[in-house]
């Protein structure tokens, strides 16, 4: 996965290197949620959230951010194989910026190419039935996105382009 990080939303230029991070696999119907350790070395799948309304979405996400004392947000950015951003990437950026604003934490965007496919393959290899895979897929994809960010030596650098 390529680095596509940017800090937006709160206007902060520094992204925290300590404290828990919230990882999101954005979707218009469901959002996969993952959380990192305070040391930012390990991520774990946390929740599959079915979106409801703007108010309910904010309440649910704010509760998680407060409960886990999240210091930053990593949102998976769906980009085309060419590296170009389409409509879904714009929606993910709007969603991340919105959370950053109401929660008061910085956001980074991270290339999510192959995260859902990797999660699906992992679940298939674990012999988890198709029906049960749906319960794990989004939060596992969020965990893969967040772990990719945590493992990247370039996570603190803003790239010129993909």
From TrEMBL:
Q: What is this protein called?
A: Putative pre-16S rRNA nuclease
Q: Show the GO MF annotations.
A: hydrolase activity, acting on ester bonds; nuclease activity
Q: Pfam families given for it?
A: RuvX
EC number(s) from the headed UniProt entry: 3.1.-.-
Tell me the organism's taxonomic lineage: Bacteria, Pseudomonadati, Planctomycetota, Planctomycetia, Planctomycetales
Q: Where is this gene product found? A: Cytoplasm
Listed GO cellular component terms? cytosol
Cited function: Could be a nuclease involved in processing of the 5'-end of pre-16S rRNA.
């Amino acid at each position: 996965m390529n680095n596509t990080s940017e800090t937006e939303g709160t206007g902060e230029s520094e992204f925290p290197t300590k404290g828990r991070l919230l990882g999101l696999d954005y979707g218009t119907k469901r959002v996969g949620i993952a959380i990192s350790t305070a040391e930012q070395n390990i991520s774990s799948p946390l929740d599959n959230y079915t979106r409801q309304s703007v108010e309910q979405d904010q309440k649910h996400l704010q509760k998680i951010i407060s409960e886990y004392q999240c210091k930053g947000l990593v949102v998976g950015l769906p980009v085309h194989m060419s590296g170009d951003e389409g409509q879904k990437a714009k929606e993910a950026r709007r969603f991340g910026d919105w959370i950053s604003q109401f929660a008061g934490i910085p956001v980074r965007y991270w290339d999510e190419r192959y995260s859902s496919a990797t999660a699906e393959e992992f679940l298939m290899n674990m012999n988890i039935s198709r029906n049960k895979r749906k319960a794990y897929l989004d939060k596992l994809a969020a965990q893969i996105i967040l772990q990719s960010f945590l493992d990247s030596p370039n996570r603190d650098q803003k790239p010129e382009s993909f």
